Amino acid sequence: MLRSGAPNSRSGKVLVVGVGSGAKRIMELVHNGSEDHVDTLYITTNEADLKATRADTKFLIGRRLCGGKGAMGLTELGEKSAEDAKRDLEPFLEGYPLIVQLATLGKGTASGASHVVASTGEGLGALVINFLLIPSSTLESMQRSVANHAKNRMVRRNFNVITIDQDRFQEINGNQPLSRTMEALDALLSWIVLSMSNVIYGNSQRSLSISDLRSVFREGNEGTIFVGGSYIADPEQAADEFISCGLLKRDPKTGRGYLLNLVTPRGSNDHMTQPFIDALMERVDGSNKTVFIGNLEDPQRTNIVDLIGIITGMEDGVVDLKDLQKGSIPKLPGSAAVHMPSADRWDIPMIR
Q1: End position of a domain, from candidates 128, 157, 186
Q2: Among 157, 178, 206, which residue terminates a domain?
């Protein structure tokens, strides 16, 4: 195992931790696209999987319990493996002010180990944000039940949770093969993690801080991601798309904490970005929300603005996509995005 740096060199970095095989692809995409302010750590119970994964640091847990063969779908094995390795894991987490954990729940390693990783990071003083993926019901219903149980346990313990429902993304993505849908989701999440890292520690037009993130999660320790985008000339479309495109079936209008990142062409200014903020705040009654806004410039784009949001404190219960969507949103020309063929769908902003 290779250390990604001494603790005193990590104060201006984000550590992205992938736990279990389900998070491996997202973490590798982050690793491949990361800059100096992002380190990656992969944690697993499967030794063969560990060797085949690209990360700055790789950590095998549960060798005594699992023999390097994985947790065999047993949450208890994943949890005990992480607990046994907790003291050895601490040096790899120490010194980072922000840790982003990626975990696809439903099997043994991530479902059992994710809360241990989160607790360890928080104990070392980091803000830990946990991206928890709930597997699709088209696979095994038991995995989805296990995943929801593990997620709810973390919410009850007041960990900062961002829940991503694969079924919800598949609904948004339209009639696509499951494998293509999951690849698109992995790419989207890696882009969001990198964008969030850049707007905190990169060269951003308007930055966000760790304190901003803490304030948003104080409004509710479970949230989800919303994305939208449009031409510079049409902020209304971007706002409509944003509130319709959440990765968990919750109504963004009921949310209390908003962390927004606008990804804009180089040279953008308040005159360009403010209409997008105004259009969105009008739709969600932003006057009574805790809102923090960052702005990351992308030199490769000319006339497209993307909105990325983490919303917390939303009321329980589901929301119908049709209840939020005002009308058909066309494909965004010039945007390298996921294609959704249905006329009442739209393209999700992706890595450009």
Answers
A1: 157
A2: 157
Both 233 and 141 in a single domain?
Answer: no
Residues 148 and 236 placed together within one structural domain of the fold: no
Q: Using the CB atoms, write b or e for 189-208: b if 16+ within 10 Å.
A: bbbbbbbbbbbbbbebbbbb
Asked if residues 253 and 309 have their Cβ atoms less than 8 Å apart, the reply is no
Residue 104's beta-bridge partner residues?
A: 133
Q: What is the pLDDT of residues 72-81, one digit of tens each?
A: 888 999 999 9
Distance (Å, whole) CA 349 – CA 307: 9
Which one, of 51, 55, 54, 107, lies nearest residue 81 by Cα? 107
Contacts of 307 (CB under 8 A, 6+ apart): 226, 227, 228, 229, 238, 239, 241, 242, 260, 261, 262, 263, 276, 280
Ranges assigned E (strand) in 117-256: 127-134, 160-165, 222-231
The per-residue pLDDT for range 182-198, each reduced to its tens digit, is 899 999 999 999 999 99
Q: Is the pTM of this model over 0.85?
A: yes
Q: Could you tell me if 153 and 292 lie in one domain?
A: no
pLDDT at 63: 92
- Collect the ranges in the chain with pLDDT lower than 50: 2, 325-352
**79 three-class SS:** helix
